[in-house]
Amino acid sequence: MSPSRPFSSEISPAEADTSPNLFRRLFPHARADFSASIVVFLVAVPLSLGIAVASGAPITAGLIAAAVGAIVAGSLGGSRLQVSGPAAGLTVIVAEMVAQYGWRVTTLITLGAGIIQIIFGLTRLSRFAQAIPPVVVHGMLAGIGLTIALSQLNVMLGGEAETGAVDSVTALPAAIAAISWPAVILGGTVIAVMVLWPRVPAKLRVLPAALVAIIAATLLSIAFADVVRVQLGGSLLGSLSLPELPDSGLWGGVLFGMLTVALIASVESLLSAVAIERMRPGTETNTDRELIGQGTANVVSGFIGGLPITGVIVRSATNVKAGAQTRASGILHGVWILLFSIVLVGVIELIPMAALAGLLIMMGIGLVKIADMRTAYTHGELAVYVVTVICVSVLNLLEGVLCGLLLAAVLLLVRGVRSRTKLATNADGSRRLTIEGALSFLAVPRLSKTLASIPPGCDVTVVLSTDYLDHTAFEHLHAWKSKQEASAAEVTIIESGESNVGAPPGPTYHTWSEWQRTEHSTMPRRTRLLRGVAAYHENVREVMRPTMSSLAGRQEPSAMLITCADSRVVPHMITHSGPGDVFTVQNVGNLATDPGASAAIEFATSQLEVPLIAVCGHSGCGAMAGLLSGVPDSSGSLGQWLRTADPALEALRAGHPVAEASLEQGFSEADQLAMVNVALQVARLRARLPETEVLGLFYDIASAQILVLDDDEETFSPTGDYDLASTTSTRT
Questions:
Q1: Do the beta carbons of residue 245 and residue 391 sit within 8 Å?
Q2: Which CA distances in Å does 615 have to 297, 437, 564, 660, 715?
Q3: What is the residue-wise DSSP string for 161-216?
């Protein structure tokens, strides 16, 4: 490259032909995707075998579905980082279909479900699948998890797997009476390894827990003579089979099974895609295309003898954590499964069935999540969760989901017609009555009781914060108003929104000087802060009390934010988060290298297990401006602090790609330095924490817009629907 264009990205055709970086230019993420594909492959193989066993299907059906889901859904789906394959969420219903119709008819159901999914995608019905309440889906998965764990507990004891939770519990006494200690030892080994594996050193945790557990149990099984092992019955190619038509009297149940599998597989795939979007911000899912991809994969899987396929959160999360950048990682892991299943059949047949039972028990328990219960409790939906879990376990999957949906609808109806009243006595003896919710004729008896408790002659302010007020309630309220006023009392009725006029912080104002309608200089020093505290107690405390009460004993943030201590940068505002959501560190210049920030990072990743760290710089940063102008006294605390950001200054002067891009966007030199600083902090954190997702952000204060570091282009760009041109066109 000539000195005249030291930072140019242009390459002549002649240079391109001979450039050693040609492959990197054509496939910039090849290394990351290849590495991630190996990790996902190691996770997928034992899980696919276990799910096939739990489903009562041929074991090779799990491998077929894993390969087809990876390659077909990975190529055609609308989520580039989602990994598809056989999922635990369908094991119970597949086991029931296999028992009722036989395996080859079940593959026809899988094929038909795929066609229905394709229709869902083509007719853009994905939005309706997403409307199913998450609490019902979480309850469904928990019920399935309990059923899987109970059925495989019999296998680990040396007995046979049962299809339902009730049958599994009934069979436990007999399994205990005829207990097989080798099976218990092998299954217990798998469970012990998977429980203890997260506590081993990080370097060892590169290997998936499931793979290590299966290998350990397989090696241990050599010590036992009579151990039941996996029987494939031939190679993967020899296991391919075509669907079979059912008897004429069974078509109704088969068609219903197709619809059931299509709905559950679609919902689970879309929920998994949403989870991946949260794990990797900036990842978007085309939900209609995703259903078309999933449907096509199910058509292929059913046609050649595989299990039903969905997007699988375990494999998808592993894919993201392993550093995958494109859909190539998921596709490649399917290729490795094919090669493994064809070439290494003998290795698979060494695995003890009890080891797979232990793996499935851990998978089933993993579907019952405390976080889901806590979320359901916080939103007042714990009853829906519990009923769904019980009904899925005791009845069957479809009936359990319908019970959950019915209860959710009833609770919604109750909330929709329920009003909430709060009567308070003011210092002067007057009353303040606040009415919230829906004030209909159904609420009149309770309202009448509250109004009757107000003595005649007492002044009353009625605040109506209702979203619905019917004629009956309106007439009753105004009849009482006339009666109260006849007793020489003053009654003031304030409609929703009017009560905030002249009050402390409302939705329109964001700073003290705005909502207090005064200049900072005219107010005593402590008053601004204390007025804010008073406003909090008056307007916010009661609303926040349930949330804060649930967080009082613990914190489980889903992200960590390292940002600047600048007063204009408000972490909860720019991330649209609330209490317990984000673990935050603020320091001068948003540096992640000082002892305080390092300690916070270690605490967040090791104790709180935060999966995502974001470093957020901002425009007009005084620390960056000071670094540019030269720190006058490097012996002082501030000078010593800023010296730790010297590498960013050196990178800026060396022509860092982020600086080049931000210069073209019209940012000042100080802002360019702030962006380079974020990019370097992100790179250091990724090297230090390879298993943690790290994100770079930049807050442009003038436009109040968040820009996201694009690792591919090495530049910051707006998120969502924001237009970059609108952000920079007016910049001078």
A1: no
A2: 39, 40, 9, 20, 15
A3: --SSHHHHHHHHHHHHHT--HHHHHHHHHHHHHHHHGGGS-TTGGGS-HHHHHHHH
**Would you say 288 and 124 are in contact if contact means Cβ atoms under 8 Å apart?**
yes
pTM beyond 0.70: no
d(CA 703, CA 634): 34
Q: Residues 496, 501, 507, 512: what is their CA dihedral angle, to the nearest 10 degrees?
A: -160
Mean pLDDT, contiguous 10-residue spans, the chain (732 residues): 37 44 61 80 79 85 92 91 85 87 93 95 75 78 82 83 77 87 90 87 75 88 83 73 86 91 87 72 80 95 93 78 83 89 80 84 81 80 90 79 87 73 84 82 84 90 78 85 89 61 39 53 64 72 71 83 90 84 88 81 88 92 83 64 80 84 82 91 87 89 86 69 35 28
Name the maximum alpha-carbon separation found in the chain: 97
How far from the centroid of its chain's Cα atoms is residue 12's Cα?
44
Q: Is 242 helix (H, G, I), strand (E, B) or coil?
A: coil
- DSSP-derived letter for residue 352 is B
Residue type, 355: A
For tokens 């190996």, the residue is 38
Phi, psi of 628 (to 5 degrees): -65, -40
Instruction: List phi, psi (to 5°) of 626.
Output: -65, -40
Note whether 625 and 670 are within 8 A (CB).
yes
Judge contact between 694 and 662, C-beta under 8 A: no
Rounded distance between C-alpha atoms, residue 299 and residue 266, angstroms: 14
Nearest Cα residue to 141 out of 88, 202, 194, 219: 88
DSSP one-letter string for 371-426: HHHHHHHHTT-HHHHHHHHHHHHHS-HHHHHHHHHHHHHHHHHHHHH-EEEEEEE-
> CA 119, CA 574: separation in Å to the nearest integer?
39
Residue owning tokens 């005084």: 622
User: pLDDT for 242-276, tens place per residue?
Assistant: 898 988 888 999 999 999 899 888 888 887 787 67
- The DSSP output letter for 246 is P
What is the side-by-side strand order in the sheet with 693-700?
582-587, 559-564, 612-618, 693-700, 705-710, 715-718
> What sign does the dihedral 408-414-418-420 (CA atoms) show?
negative
Q: How far apart are CA 93 and CA 692, in angstroms?
A: 35
β-bridge mates for residue 423, sequence order: 433
Residue pair 436/450 in contact by the 8 Å Cβ criterion: no
How far the first Cα of the chain sits from its last, in Å, is 32
Nearest to 263 by CA among 397, 130, 78, 129: 129
Unique residue bearing structure tokens 């019999």: 154
- Give CA–CA dist 268/264, Å, rounded: 6
The region, left, alpha or beta by phi > 0 then psi within -120 to 50, assigned to residue 684 is alpha
In the prediction, which pLDDT does 528 show? 66
